[in-house]
Design a protein that fits this description.
alpha+beta, three-stranded antiparallel β-sheet, 5 helices, elongated, 29% helix, 3 strands
């Protein structure tokens, strides 16, 4: 299998194409079938610190290291600071003046935008375009 995978790499096949071709070439032999992720892990092994420049030339992207994909559980929040549920009770009661609430509305392709600031007690509105 390693000679077949090496020959396919020289032809610049993707690891998914290699694993698919191995299933076609060896239909009754599950020990010859390899998942494309295993090929990626073998290429970009952590012991080798990525690929050598010579081997990276054979890949379509030419990268020596593999790009990591973000998991949805590890995404960062777009918002910094406290969330609305974490506001103090005096802000929710609207009894003390001086608490402002802001919104930003962006247009198509971020070509235009409107920012609004509202004072929560008096309802005074400031808007900018």
């Amino acid at each position: 299998m390693s000679t077949g995978a090496t020959a396919a790499r020289v032809q610049q096949w993707r690891p998914r194409q290699i694993s698919h071709q191995l299933r076609i070439d060896f239909p009754g032999q599950p020990e010859m079938n390899v998942v494309h992720e295993s090929i990626y892990r073998a290429l970009y092994s952590p012991h080798a610190n990525g690929l050598s420049r010579g081997m990276a030339r054979h890949l379509r992207t030419g990268r020596r290291g593999r790009l990591t994909h973000r998991h949805t559980t590890k995404r960062r929040s777009r918002f910094s600071g406290p969330l609305l549920g974490e506001r103090p009770a005096e802000v929710d009661n609207r009894l003390v003046p001086g608490h402002w609430e802001g919104d930003l509305v962006c247009g198509t392709f971020n070509r235009s935008a409107i920012a609004t600031l509202v004072e929560r007690t008096t309802g005074m509105l400031c808007s900018c375009t």
